[in-house]
Amino acid sequence: MELQSAKTETLKEGGGQRRHEEEEGGGQRRHEEEEGGGKRRHEEEGGGQKAPMKRREEEGGQRKHEEEEGQKAPMKRRHEEEEGGQRRHEEEEGGQKAPMKRRQEEGGQRRHEEGGQRRHEEGGGGQKAPMKRRREEGGQRRHEEEEEGQKAPMKRRHEEEEGGQRRHEEEEEGQKAPMKRRHEEEEGGQRRHEEEEGGQRRHEEGGGGPKAPMKRRREEEEEQVPPPKKLQVIDHSVKVASHYNSLQEVGLAARSQSRIFFMRNFNNWLKSVLIGEILDQVRGSGSQKVSVLDLGCGKGGDLLKWRRGGINHLVCADIAGVSVDQCQSRYEDMKKKSHVNEKIFSAQFINADCSKEVLSEKLDDPELLFDICSCQFVYHYSFESEQKADMMLRNACERLKPGGYFIGTTPDAFELVKRLEASDSLAFGNEVFKVSFQSKGSYPLFGCQYHFSLEDVVDVPESLVYFPLFEHMAKRYNMRLVLKQRFSEFFDEKVKKEHHRSLMMKMMALQPFPCEDGGRQATDSRGEYGHAEEHCVRAGVQLPLGTLSRSEWEAASIYLVFIFQKMS
């Protein structure tokens, strides 16, 4: 009976073990079926026509899924190895238990036969001895504890695998959720794009239907962005033209009341001497008919000089259209008032910016060549840039005959800079004129601008003319410098000739000092004529004498005279 009981216990343990294995095997099969079913569902969901972006994302998800499956393979192998180990343990345990049980049963049998036969027979053999029961119960408990101890790690690993499976499924769902959202966003964006295209077609077909919201926003944003500002380049020739156009023509009586009346007469005398001497040289070279270009003619202040010089043809050009019109009017008046037998030169009048436009293209006679080009108090405006300065030189020189002259007057840059450097500020001058610079110490070759104002006559920006550069540029047109003198030097030389002195008196180029009865002085300011008194004492000259006020001398002495001749 004890052998039967041991066999029964062994069968029960084996049946329990087989049920445990079947349950674990069934759990494993269900786990694999669920994974397989999840994988099939995942593939079925991703099987339709996908957008390119969705296909790439799902292919990336599939690769992740396969990598995770590859990571599960070692876990599955470990699980199978553990099951094999469990079976080997049970077999070893069964093998170890059999000898021990047989020895126990043999010992119990001997004890039963020797000392406990009667108790066995009286008790019917249905109950075991207390000691044996305790040993068997203790052995059974140890066996169960060992089984539980061995099963516990397997159970934990099984639970960890189930938890890993759940996490894998959650991760799969988590990966699919953003893909699903992106897919929905792409579908929504596609629908919006189709709606915009449809709206655009309706707008084009229907002639101004409502625009798509996105396009409308883009257009509104573009309208809000201000257009890039263009850099404004100041062209000072426009200011010069505007200034001279605004000057009002006044009569002789009004001019005689000007603070610089004698200075203006002095400048006119100096130009008359210059023009007269050049005309003499032109005629002395054998030229019978003289043609002249007055470059920067203004209102025609030199018309009488050309009339006295007996020229044949005159071309007057200036940037100020009003001045050109007044010049032409004065010319017409001069012709009307001339003597019957007097032959007045013919003339053409051109309104043009001589520092930008080619004058030869505007001439009535395209073959016309000039004996003289006169440029009085004008050329310095062109030195705003090299291009302008060169164009002015081209207009002055390219149509000159061989041996012809380019004459003019302009501020002396060296004298202006000398006075600026001696000043405590950026300006210098007196009650008649003022010159102001933006800075000092650095003077560019072109565009070195200053502002010049002269009583009632000039109030414009001008540019320094660096004369060595001016002379160098003139050589491009086969011109050589004949004369360059400051006004004071030119005056000292020419006033020595009697006919020039006589012309000076006639033109009232100097003011008598002291003032004669009935006459007037340019100013009552003390010290304005001290230089004249000092000259009388030093030179032993008796009063009265001809002079200019100190302020007028200072203004006139910033200018110079130049003469270029075209080489044959």
Topology:
Blueprint: H1 2-45, H2 52-114, H3 117-122, H4 130-206, H5 213-224, H6 236-246, H7 252-255, H8 261-284, E1 291-295, H9 303-309, E2 313-318, H10 321-337, E3 346-351, E4 370-376, H11 386-397, E5 400-411, H12 413-422, E6 427-429, E7 433-437, E8 449-454, E9 458-463, H13 467-474, E10 479-486, H14 487-494, H15 498-506, E11 511-513, H16 530-539, E12 545-547, H17 550-556, E13 559-566
Parallel strand pairs: 1-2, 1-4, 2-3, 4-5
Antiparallel strand pairs: 5-13, 6-7, 7-8, 8-9, 10-13, 11-12
Helix pairs in contact: 1-2, 2-4
Notes on the protein architecture:
- This protein is α/β, with parallel strands linked by helices and 568 residues long.
- It has two domains: 159 residues; 318 residues, Vaccinia Virus protein VP39 (Rossmann fold, 3-Layer(aba) Sandwich).
- The chain is built from 17 helices and 13 strands.
- A seven-stranded mixed sheet has the order 3-2-1-4-5-13-10. Strands 6-7-8-9 form a four-stranded antiparallel sheet. Strands 11-12 form a two-stranded antiparallel sheet.
- Strand 1, helix 9 and strand 2 form a beta-alpha-beta unit.
- Helix 2 packs antiparallel against helix 4.
- The longest helix has 77 residues.
- It is elongated and about 165 Å long.
- The N terminus is likely disordered.
Query: Which consecutive residue ranges, at least 5 long each, have pLDDT under 50?
Result: 1-16, 37-52, 95-99, 115-130, 202-211, 228-233
**CATH-level-4 superfamily name of the largest domain:** Vaccinia Virus protein VP39
Mean of all residue-level pLDDT scores = 76
- Topology, number of strands: 13
* C-alpha geometry: elongated
Strand content: 5-15%
Strand order of the largest sheet: 3-2-1-4-5-13-10
